[in-house]
Design a protein that fits this description.
Mean pLDDT: 86
Strand order of the largest sheet: 1-3-2
Largest sheet: 3 strands, antiparallel
Helix content: 25-40%
Strand content: 15-25%
Low-confidence stretches: none
Structural class: alpha+beta
Shape: globular
Number of strands: 3
Number of helices: 4
Distance between the termini: 12 Å
Radius of gyration: 13 Å
Length: 90
């Protein structure tokens, strides 16, 4: 599952330059993941890896909603910090 925290983590397979930022919008992060044909990308803050976000988790986050309130369009504008925190609540 996707994870973002304030402590540095090291994931050796993610030493490349492509990464996400914790304050990046979900819609932008998903676009980066899909444009780079990646299943996951590291989340970096000030050049330090503080997490990892998976494409499948973002898609789940967007599609798992209470249909009564139709929150899909609102969820596109959540930042990654909020989205990942909400994923861990479910």
């Amino acid at each position: 599952m996707s994870l973002i925290n304030e402590k540095e983590i090291y994931v050796p397979e993610f030493d490349d330059a492509v990464s996400l930022h914790p304050e990046q919008l979900v819609i932008n992060a998903l676009e980066v993941l899909l444009d780079n044909d990646r299943e996951a990308l590291p989340v970096r803050k000030n050049g330090i890896c503080v997490g990892i976000v998976y494409t499948k988790d973002l898609i789940w986050f967007l599609t798992n909603s209470n249909k009564e309130y139709n929150l899909l369009f609102h969820k596109f504008n959540f930042d990654l910090n909020t989205a990942v925190a909400m994923m861990h609540l479910k």
